[in-house]
């Protein structure tokens, strides 16, 4: 070829061939096995696949456009896969590939302070999560022999819960009530109360509105310790598959800390929407429906999820994972299928009442229907001493209040009982984001039991609760330090504590600010 002339077809081909030889000379050629199948049908984020006979249950699958899914049901000649990403570009005939591993999520300290989806992908605009390992979302619950007694308290900061329905580390306590009765608020206050504790918190949002989830995250950032929290979000706009795996993914992330001798708390908000998502996926994959149109395995689904919350034995590190699942009722019907399931699975329930919420009694806990089956053994010894009769006194007051609506009170003893009950109700009513320390709760209940609050006007109760922590730290700092552990309250200590509260009560009664 002469200078300045156009390159010929042969010269171009020879140049391309030379470049190709150079690339191949530096390329390591190794065999790679792939299991490929095809999409037969797809609708509503469920794909029916063929050609993958060795696929395992919950195995990850990659579609032609890069979307991720997992095998939900395995039939003799086909697989029903749930797609976890946008599925609009997947069509019948598209190629699908086995990834050779089951559904798994990242775990480790790198998740703390982050907002992620159930696959561990960041939703907060930050860098990708640095994972210490990847664990399956479906993991067996600890065996009975691997567990220990639930004997340590989780302080919720809510007097009505800590005094009457104490939550223990490793317990599963259901929060249940009608829509808009403050269920998430109770769980959120519990998370905020761990600001100065050693408990790592995991909040899992299942099918919630994005704005509601944002409010929860902002509240923790404003009042709690977000650097020790993980937010797993599968909002109402997320794919049904992501909503389905979200509680399991959150449980796996929390188990990482439990299995290393630390303590974790998981809030699942909520399992009613999770059950509806499970029903949707089950109907799309043609599973038989059961009672109230829910598939028969919905009980097993939630049972194997919540059984993973446990207090491990000392030989396994002594870590704990406490679960606070949330469920919604319709018109207070606790006997519906999903509420009945969850009540029988968990170790107790905190029931929220619509009438109490409407009457501005917050948190609107129904003390008659709520129960904690194991928490009493975990209650702070001093708190157990001073809260012995409060539930009985409050229940009697509610009955008396009902009967005395139709006539005046003339008996002095009944008047005294009514006065005490009104103060119990005022104490149990607590604003949001104002958690109490265990020592503050002990002081309030000790003062209540001795009658130190009987003459205090009801409208000053919020001010008493607000000023009490600083007052006690200044007046009886040694006693506060002693009660800050797990020590009991002797007679002398009780007298000093009540006397300290009386000085603040006298100041408030006298109009001191």
UniProtKB/TrEMBL annotation:
EC code: 7.1.2.2
Reaction equations catalysed: ATP + H2O + 4 H(+)(in) = ADP + phosphate + 5 H(+)(out)
Key words, A-Z: ATP synthesis, ATP-binding, Cell inner membrane, Cell membrane, CF(1), Hydrogen ion transport, Ion transport, Membrane, Nucleotide-binding, Translocase, Transport
PROSITE patterns with a match to the protein in the record: ATPASE_ALPHA_BETA
Uppermost EC category: translocase
Alphabetical list of Gene3D superfamilies matching this protein: 2.40.30.20, ATP synthase alpha/beta chain, C-terminal domain, P-loop containing nucleotide triphosphate hydrolases
Domain ATPase F1/V1/A1 complex alpha/beta subunit nucleotide-binding, first and last residues per copy: 157-372
GO molecular function: ADP binding; ATP binding; proton-transporting ATP synthase activity, rotational mechanism
Recorded GO CC terms: plasma membrane; proton-transporting ATP synthase complex
Record-annotated site: Required for activity: 370
Residues reported to bind ATP: 177-184
Superkingdom, taxonomy of origin: Bacteria
Subcellular location: Cell membrane; Membrane
Membrane topology annotation: Peripheral membrane protein
Domain ATP synthase alpha subunit C-terminal: 379-502
Entry annotated with the keyword NAD: no
Quaternary structure and partners: F-type ATPases have 2 components, CF(1) - the catalytic core - and CF(0) - the membrane proton channel. CF(1) has five subunits: alpha(3), beta(3), gamma(1), delta(1), epsilon(1). CF(0) has four main subunits: a(1), b(1), b'(1) and c(9-12).
PANTHER family to which the protein is assigned, alphabetical: ATP SYNTHASE SUBUNIT ALPHA, MITOCHONDRIAL
Known function: Produces ATP from ADP in the presence of a proton gradient across the membrane. The alpha chain is a regulatory subunit.
Protein's UniProt name: ATP synthase subunit alpha
